[in-house]
Specification:
The complex is a heterodimer.
Chain A: H1 3-6, H2 17-42, H3 56-63, E1 72-74, H4 80-85, H5 90-97, H6 131-146, E2 152-157, H7 164-176, E3 180-186, E4 189-190, E5 193-194, E6 215-219, H8 223-238, E7 244-249, H9 268-272, H10 279-289, H11 295-317
Parallel strand pairs in A: 1-2, 2-3, 3-7, 6-7
Antiparallel strand pairs in A: 4-5
Chain B: E1 2-4, H1 6-20, E2 24-28, H2 44-52, E3 53-55, H3 60-73, E4 76-80, H4 91-98, H5 101-104, E5 114-119, H6 134-138, E6 144-146, H7 151-163, E7 168-173, E8 182-184, E9 197-200, E10 205-209, H8 212-228, E11 232-236, E12 239-241, H9 245-255, E13 258-265, H10 270-281, E14 291-295, H11 305-311, H12 315-326
Parallel strand pairs in B: 2-3, 2-4, 4-5, 5-7, 6-7, 10-11, 10-13, 13-14
Antiparallel strand pairs in B: 1-8, 6-12, 9-11
Helix pairs in contact in B: 1-7, 3-4, 8-12
Classes of the chains: A alpha/beta, B alpha/beta.
Chain lengths: 353, 328
């Protein structure tokens, strides 16, 4: 990756010091929640964790241009930093992983890592990979039909990029120039299978040409480069110029999930040097070089986050577990015989109409 | 009252709903300028434009998945699968996503959308243009499944499906599209999903059917009355999920005999659910074995007319099955 070639100064991108510090804070928060949940998983409090560690730079930076309460997101199972940047709180995330009854994503019905939240315009995610990309395209189609100023972003891995539904989604988005941003977070592994066994030609972004949209490769360690690409994609979408495919080359710092051990298939020297590619210290050093981040600011951010995560954990743990008395409910939006009982539902409102 | 065929009734339902609610849109293959391969959307493109009557690429997963996205966003999409036989690429979206969205999000997201699918044989469509694959969907919790047999029911139930807050699979038997005309009430008549109708009252046995089988069962009932003095009650289920237990039970209580008829193959077919429900809930009323008449156990309707005739459930076969049952 030619990271130095694309290196940008935040001022040139219209970002204030507060913006880049905010991005740095968002990365640290996501990492802190992620690390906390691994601890809770090891302690037997959380059944399963699928991590976003290493993806935070790309996720925070690409989500940064997205407008909360207006734009939409269809995330994937590593989208912890994206979901938090788009509005989910640390407590939302931890509550979902504890499968509590009032978890905003699923009320304890889904496994950890299935991000979603109606209040945040984050579409509920399932487990078959790539399905969400069509939902993003459908939301974008809805906005396009209605003429609304709404941009939809979706994330997926490079393994998922091979699914037929991704092809269908990108082709359709390209045909109608739909306002959607495809973010492929390429960490080089689909669980254990490396990139050269998954993606012919080695580039997901290169496929964009066939769909009549720009395909941009960014280095997930180059936070401002990721931001610049996403901002341009967001602007293009709003200008009616259609979709963009951004392939962010990121690093997967952990095993695929808490049920996996990457030492079985990754070279020991590769695993040993993973930390050197961690986007968080990279961005910190960039911000220090730019004179934006100081020891005092760093310390203050870390203290704040620690307090927030401790409070979020405590509060999430105190929430009620789901009741099996309600497990048959909310199958249908309307009561039908044998299909659950009615609940008060918020009306389905979308975008600005 | 206008005399309409099935296709005209379906088209009118969509037209009226699009007129009434600008969130309603249609998407599918050839639904635009051409008006659909069967003509169900004829005229809608000219009236509502490119975006609300949207020609898609040949991508069934996209049609279903994007419809769900649009439904989540607030629209009321009507997705057309050109043939029910071609729905399988969309199966993942329908089963993993559309049917489960509401439950998995604890009721915070819904997919109010309709998937219309021409199904059924008897049209020289062979294995891949004749399937009756409703059972895949009736066994999927989270979906509603409708299969009307008359133009009036088709119009009123399609309107209900479009307004329904849940995803509805709408099965249109393609042989019925232009088979006959019947009176369709003018104006905004909407039928509740989940209600069967008694198409013909009778006292000796009940025939439970849906879609094109309604036409066949009514013809069989006339023969039975004329030739055997057997008065068959024909119950058109109209909605397959949820199943109208009340109408089902009332009919069995009256006749004591149940014949369940469908075109799809028998094994694990929809008739099994109807038969089991009757066996469980109406046992004390039964005066004969709950009987199924269904398509044969072959992977599809074969093409040549002698083969297709061999496959199809016909009025004559219904008469034969009913005679056997009535003899108890």
């Amino acid at each position: 990756m030619a990271r130095t070639d694309t290196k940008l100064r935040h001022g040139d991108l219209g970002l204030a010091d507060a913006d880049v510090l905010g991005m740095y804070r968002a990365m640290l928060r996501a990492r802190a929640v992620d690390e906390r949940m691994w601890l809770m998983q090891r302690a037997g409090k959380i059944a399963f964790i699928i991590s976003g560690q290493g993806h935070e730079g790309a996720q925070v930076a690409t989500t940064w241009p997205m407008r909360r309460g207006q734009d939409w997101m269809a995330p994937f199972y590593r989208s912890i930093a994206s979901a938090m940047t788009f509005g989910m709180s640390a407590e939302d995330i931890i509550t979902a992983h504890l499968a509590k009854g009032d978890d905003v994503s699923s009320g304890g019905r889904q496994m950890p890592g299935h991000y979603g939240g109606a209040p945040y315009n984050i579409v509920s995610l399932s487990s078959p990979v790539g399905t969400q990309v069509l939902h993003a395209v459908g939301i974008a189609m809805g906005a396009w039909v209605r003429g609304d100023d709404v941009v939809t972003m979706t994330q997926f891995g490079e393994g998922t990029s091979n699914q037929g539904e991704i092809h269908e989604a990108m082709n359709f988005a390209g045909v109608h120039r739909l306002p959607v941003i495809f973010i492929c977070e390429n960490n080089g592994y689909a669980i254990s299978v490396p990139l050269d066994r998954q993606v012919a030609g080695g580039s997901v972004a290169a496929r964009a040409e066939g769909y009549g949209m720009p395909g941009v490769v960014v280095d997930g360690g180059d936070i401002l480069g990721c931001y610049a690409a996403a901002k341009e994609a967001h602007d293009r979408a709003r200008r009616g110029e259609g979709p963009t495919l951004i392939e962010a080359r990121v690093v997967r710092l952990t095993s695929h999930s808490s049920d996996d051990d990457q030492r079985r298939y990754r070279d020991p020297s590769e695993v040993e040097h993973l930390k050197e590619q961690d986007p968080i210290p990279m961005f910190a050093s960039e911000l220090r070089d730019a004179g934006v981040l100081t020891d005092e600011i760093e310390e203050s951010i870390r203290v704040d986050i620690k307090a927030e995560i401790n409070e979020a954990t405590k509060s999430a743990e105190a929430r009620p577990d789901p009741s099996s008395d309600e497990a048959h409910e909310r199958v249908y939006a309307e009561p039908i015989p044998g299909g659950g009982t009615p609940v008060a539902l918020a009306p389905i409102e979308g975008g600005s109409h | 009252m206008a005399e309409l065929n099935m296709l005209e009734a379906i088209r009118l339902a969509m037209d009226e709903e699009m007129e009434r609610d600008d969130r309603v849109m249609v998407l599918g293959e050839d639904v635009g300028k051409k008006g659909g391969v069967f003509g169900a959307t004829e005229g809608l493109w000219a009236k509502y434009g490119d975006k609300r009557v949207l020609d898609t690429p040949l991508t069934e997963a996209m049609i279903a998945g994007a419809a769900m996205g649009a439904a989540v966003y607030g629209l009321r999409p009507i997705a057309e699968m050109q043939f029910a036989d071609f729905v399988y690429p969309a199966f993942n979206q329908i089963v993993s996503e559309i049917s489960r969205l509401h439950y998995r999000s604890n009721g915070t997201f819904s997919a109010p959308m309709v998937i219309r699918m021409p199904y059924g044989g008897g049209v020289h469509g062979a294995l891949y243009h004749s399937q009756s694959n409703e059972t895949y969907f009736t066994s999927t919790v989270g979906l509603k499944v409708v299969a009307p047999g008359t133009p009036a029911d088709a119009k009123a139930l399609l309107k209900a499906a479009i307004r329904d807050p849940d995803p509805v699979m709408f099965f249109e038997h393609k042989k019925t599209y232009r088979l006959f005309r019947a009176e369709v009430p003018d104006g905004d008549t909407v039928l509740p999903i989940g209600k069967a109708s008694v198409a013909r009252a009778g006292k000796h046995l009940s025939i439970f059917c849906y879609g094109f089988m309604r036409t066949c069962a009514l013809e069989a009932a006339e023969t039975l009355a004329r030739e055997d003095g057997v008065e068959a009650e024909v119950v058109d289920l109209r909605t397959l999920r949820p199943l109208d237990h009340e109408t089902l039970m009332a009919s069995v209580a009256k006749t004591g005999k149940a014949l369940v008829v469908h075109e799809a193959n028998r094994f694990g077919g929809y008739g099994a659910e109807v038969a089991a429900t009757i066996a469980e809930k109406a046992f004390e009323h039964l005066d004969g074995p709950v009987t199924r008449l269904a398509g044969p156990e072959v992977p599809g309707v074969p093409f040549h007319h002698t083969l297709e005739d061999w496959y199809m459930v016909s009025p004559a076969r219904i008469v034969a099955a009913a005679r056997e049952l009535a003899a108890y």
